[in-house]
Amino acid sequence: MVSLNGNVFFSDNVEDFPTFIKSAYKFLKTDYSKFFKMDNLSKLAFLAADALLKKENLNEKENNIALIFSNKASSLDTDRKHQASIENDAEYFPSPAVFVYTLPNICLGEISIKHRLYSENSFFIFDRFNAEHLQLYANSLLRNGKAEKVLCGWVDFDENSYDAFLYLVEKEGKIEHKTEEITRLYNIL
Amino acid sequence: MTKTFVSYNNIISSLGFDSETVVDNISKGISGLEKKEDVSLLPEPFCASIISSEKIKEEFNKIADASKYTKLEQMLILSLGKVIEASNIPLNEKVGLIISTTKGNIDALEKENNFPKNRAYVSELGKTIQNFFGFKNEAIVLSNACVSGILAISAAKRFICEGKYDHIFITSGDLVTKFILSGFSSFQALSAEPCKPYDKNRIGINLGEVVASVLVTSSEENLPKEAVEILGDATCNDANHISGPSRTGEGLFRSVKSALKEANITAAEIDYISAHGTATPFNDEMEAIAFNRLEMDNVPLNSLKGYFGHTLGASGLLETIVGMHSMKKNTLFISKGFDELGVSQKINIIKTNTPKTLNTFLKTASGFGGCNTAVIFKKTNN
């Protein structure tokens, strides 16, 4: 399911990720051909960001929105695919189109390209969702004028489980930017 | 604004197991790169800087049982242990830990690897290092492609300035594995000969393995002679391509601009640039364009990839440490592998070891995903 600001706006009962993400992509009317070349983690992160940033009336040329993402499984879903392609000498076929996605921050690049974000990027790996460090890092970027807004969150894809939780931080808004609130919102999911 | 410093430091590489030895070897022009033929790593010959597992194990067995730790874990623990010991800082609630790596224990995915598959999670790597030393705070793992090592310094500064920590230890490392070699080879990015950053005849990168560790601190007391202050830092995306650098050097240009602005200095005040210089045709060209746009074409510049190869998640931290020692010695080191300029714009590549009073240097890196990071450091004169 996909929800925005607490309202579920898309749900699908399918279990498998490829079917789910394709339906969500169609539902969101995200017309972007590069989407189909992305790996699972990037598709998940890209679509979650797109759902959120669509509402922001972004500038076509450039936007200063920093990206601070995190997860537990890094890019292991794609790492396993690359490893499978080199495991046996008889079937050795590493592919650059797969290998490039063996880094978790590639999804930040995909989002930056789509939304023209020439901004701060950082990908952290934690054992579980770590609101405190996302909050500290976002505060630092806003305080020092490195970013006008910060898109933060958790985007994890591992074997058959996946989840994405993103939130936008800016200088003014209704929900106070503090660890307790971020954790509360994360736990509603 | 809280001041932050890069303090005690260590490098474990094929050029030595401490920063001083490694820097001494660089000053003698010695490279850790060697041509290899090892089909268990890559079907064709390649050139890399690889540390002997036996040597690491021998060192590690002096402090703990090496059989319980992967090669990368042994290296990270050995290196970080030396920095913690030298700094003499008790690991209390105000002390943080950042681990910078792109692939961590990725070799745990290999069929013949004896460690459990879950060792491939970098969060597990974080826990292993955290528990070995008894850090009170959860390890923060930073994995942001080839800017990870230098971005870790920037992140440490930011977390300290937010008041969460007084000191942060950073350790960084990646191994030369079949995983990495096969991937870069599939991009046709590898050179079988020692790499030649910025040179007319450059054909690609060499991979290398290194572990580098530092202390980042807000305390001005008990700093070593090579310590530097972090004046400004920034990371900017190219918003252009996930595996190719921007033709205009946009992200790198913006990162340096933003770091200079924060440092409140001009491009002319930078004495030396420790650049990324991977020796791929596109990367080096992109950097030359960016540095020209920044009017830094006369600032002495080197790439250290000719000594270590590209050490991925460790490279930015490794090269910062060498830069610190370069400033301490007031010496610019040769950009190894360079003979004749092979980029379209003029840049001032260091061709001989040159004595020069150095007060400020810029470290830059760029990586997959379109990321670029720049950090400016100033001598502390301890």
Task: Write up what this structure looks like.
The complex is a heterodimer of chains A (189) and B (382). Chain A is an alpha/beta fold and 189 residues long. Chain A contains 7 helices and 6 strands; from the N terminus they run ββααβαααβαββα. In chain A, 38% of the residues lie in helices and 20% in strands. Helices cover 30% and strands 21% of the residues of chain B. Chain B has helices spanning 19-27, 53-60, 71-87, 122-133, 148-161, 178-186, 250-263, 281-293, 305-308, 315-328; strands at residues 5-12, 34-36, 46-49, 95-100, 140-142, 167-174, 207-208, 210-217, 228-237, 272-274, 300-302, 331-332, 348-349, 354-355, 360-367, 371-379. At the A-B interface, helix 3, helix 5, strand 4 and helix 6 of A face helix 4, strand 5, helix 5, helix 6 and strand 9 of B.
Can you tag this structure with a few keywords?
heterodimer, A: 189 residues, alpha/beta, Peroxisomal Thiolase, Chain A, domain 1, four-stranded mixed β-sheet, two-stranded antiparallel ribbon, 7 helices, 38% helix, 20% strand, B: 382 residues, 2 domains, eleven-stranded mixed β-sheet, three-stranded mixed β-sheet, 10 helices, 16 strands, 30% helix, 21% strand, globular
